[in-house]
Write a structure and sequence with these properties.
Blueprint lengths: L2 H4 L17 H12 L4 H11 L3 H10 L11 E6 L2 H6 L1 H12 L5 E2 L5 E6 L11 E3 L2 E3 L4 H12 L4 H4 L7 E3 L26 H11 L11 H10 L6 E6 L8 H8 L1 H15 L3 E6 L4 H16 L16 E6 L9 H8 L23 E5 H13 L1 H4 L10 E8 L5 E6 L4 H7 L5 E6 L5 E3 L18 E6 L4 H15 L5 H18 L5 H17 L3 H5 L2 H9 L1 H9 L11 H12 L1
Parallel strand pairs: 1-3, 6-12, 7-8, 7-10, 8-9, 11-15
Antiparallel strand pairs: 1-4, 2-3, 4-5, 11-12, 13-14, 13-15
């Protein structure tokens, strides 16, 4: 059973022996693509080549959701269990897949033909319920469609031949020529501007534009690039974090699908500015279906002399890009965890002794930005900072891509000016009785309609890239339990506050669901949330309690109602004396 015949994830078609640890992830993918799983023989080969123990290689494999020590079926189905999917019919679709394939959820059918597994958000929240079959996308699923898809697979159709096209669903962008990212584009539009620039002037242009990282941390991009350039160590590296795993977020998918060349030009501009010749795109495994298009664009840019040596005829400007496929770990969206992953280690966040611009990939100065940030940087060079500063607000210049999903008629991607209110977005997407609104995914901030006039801006309501809308018909507790399952599953488990805190949240939410919670349980959750915010190693642990704490503050009547539903007898504390008296009464 070969990767070609089975139409599996086709990344990492590497040949030859494993040479160093940075090749480990590709090696493991190649082994799994060829055999359907990573065999003991493959582990032994990797351990021998790298002079490490087999247990260490197994530790790397076990860290990733999509690598497996056992076969997962000739057709491996990953069904997205995000909160939007749950609200759109996840349970019905799950039951339909189980009935059609004979596979239990998170198992393989007796014939070994079909494997069916739950997975976290796959970047298709505008087309839920959605699934990946051998990493090919299937969207807007229902029971009838599932039955038809499985029937085609059984008769011999390849998933890639019957998968669904994925439209970008660009619903809106600013008029009056104010769109920045989603405007028309042609190759070299941005790189051509470098003929009139020096590395120093590029840095000044980016700094004066006020561009910040668009992934959620919002660190000033120009300062990051400048710090890397000023570090005396070399070589320097440019990394694009294309691992957008936050449930409800898919705006980078749209850029990768519709404007891959703009991304490459943004990375090349960063390379020019900091003095790097090497770029890597860390592409989440859920976007494997985009990899060929991205690679074709890279190859095309090389032929056009927009990547490679002396780019665009600029002597000494050398820069090239490769793709590194991830293997399914939300925490690898954290920049140091991503670096560990690329270096062939478990994708655990590093201790923050150094910034990546000081000691990043292989302990060398490294710039890491996400897809949207590099694309915006390219537009700033193309259009000029003055043109960019005409949009947005004084403190939040430019535009922002927002992934909108959930209870609305027009889910999709919206390019908004910074300063746009939540209410404007709800009106444009034709939201259906909005009630609970999640901004920036589960790690962001939830708001009620009382806050709908807040602005998407750095000094009010910063948004990393998504808005999920839930109507009055959705239960807040169901949403929070979904978030908690996600964070509990995706935690690397390295630090105790995250590992224990998410477990405690799970148990507290179970008490609420069983109508057994007390007022003290609300306070316990608040205290644990504060501990996690202060003491977790990375952003996953620090932000995992956000939605829990926000919901308690902004929907107090909901939690009061949950507590007040408890029978009075269950709200009382245990009294040993009373229990003994009751025992004596019944035993006499």
């Amino acid at each position: 059973m070969t990767a070609k015949n089975n139409n599996r994830n086709t990344d990492a078609n590497r040949t030859g022996p494993l040479k160093d640890r940075t090749e480990l992830l590709d090696f493991l993918w190649a082994a799994q693509n060829e055999h359907g799983f990573v065999r003991p023989k493959d582990i032994a080969e990797a351990a021998d080549a790298l002079a490490v123990s087999e247990i260490e290689i197994e530790g790397v494999i076990s860290f990733y959701h999509f690598l497996s020590r056992r076969p997962r079926g000739r057709f491996t189905i990953y069904l997205n269990n995000s909160p939007v999917s749950e609200s759109k019919g996840f349970e019905r679709v799950s039951e339909a897949f189980q009935a059609a394939t004979g596979a239990p959820m998170n198992g393989v059918d007796p014939s070994g033909e079909f494997g069916l597994f739950e997975t976290a958000c796959i970047g298709l929240s505008d087309m839920e319920p959605a699934a990946l079959i051998n990493f090919q996308p299937f969207t807007n699923l229902n029971s009838l469609k599932v039955k038809a898809v499985v029937a085609k697979l059984k008769r011999g159709d390849a998933p890639a031949d019957i998968s669904d096209p994925v439209p970008d669903h660009v619903r809106w962008m600013p008029g009056d020529d104010k769109a920045i990212l989603l405007r028309d584009y042609a190759p070299a539009d941005a790189i051509a501007q470098l003929r009139d620039h020096t590395p120093g002037s590029v840095l000044e242009e980016i700094k004066r534009s006020g561009l910040r990282g668009m992934g959620g941390a919002f660190f000033p991009t120009g300062l990051k690039w400048e710090a890397c350039r000023n570090d005396p160590e070399s070589p320097k590296f440019i990394f694009c974090n294309a691992d957008e795993g936050e449930p409800g977020t898919f705006k980078d998918r749209v850029l990768l699908n519709s404007l891959p060349g703009l991304l490459l030009e943004g990375m090349a501009i960063a390379g020019f500015a900091v003095g790097s010749e090497v770029g890597t795109i860390y592409l989440r495994a859920e976007y494997t279906w985009l990899k060929d298009r991205l690679q074709d664009t890279i190859d095309h840019y090389r032929k056009m002399n927009l990547l490679g040596r002396d780019i665009y005829g600029i002597e000494g400007f050398h820069f090239d890009v490769r793709i590194q496929l991830g293997a399914g770990a939300y925490v690898c969206g954290e920049e140091t965890a991503m670096l560990n992953s690329i270096e062939g280690k478990r994708g655990e966040p590093r201790n923050k002794r150094f910034f990546p611009t000081e000691r990043g990939y292989l302990q060398k100065p490294t710039v890491i930005n996400n897809v949207e940030t590099f694309c915006t940087a390219a537009r700033i060079l193309q259009l000029g900072k003055d043109r960019y500063l005409l949009t947005g607000t004084q403190t939040s210049p430019g535009t922002k891509l927002i992934s909108v999903s959930g209870d609305c008629r027009l889910p999709g991607t919206y390019e908004i000016e910074w300063g746009t209110t939540v209410r404007e977005i709800l009106e444009r997407c034709e939201a259906d009785r909005p009630y609970f609104i999640q901004v920036s995914g589960p790690s962001g901030e939830c708001i009620s309609m009382d806050e709908a006039d807040r602005a998407i801006a750095f000094d009010d309501l910063p948004c990393g890239g998504s808005i999920m809308i839930f109507s009055h018909s959705r239960d807040i507790l169901d949403i929070l339990r979904n978030y908690n399952r996600f964070f509990k599953s995706e935690s690397c488990g390295l630090c105790t506050p995250c590992r224990a805190g998410n477990f405690i949240f799970e148990k507290k939410l179970e008490l609420f669901a069983s109508k057994l919670a007390r007022t003290s349980d609300v306070e316990d959750m608040r205290q644990w949330g504060e501990i996690m915010k202060l003491s977790c190693r990375c952003g996953l642990g620090k932000t995992a309690p956000n939605a829990m704490l926000d919901a308690q503050r902004k929907f107090p009547e909901y939690f009061e109602k949950l507590v007040n539903q408890n029978p009075e007898r269950l709200s009382k504390g245990f009294s040993l004396d009373e229990a003994v008296r009751e025992y004596d009464r019944f035993s006499s």
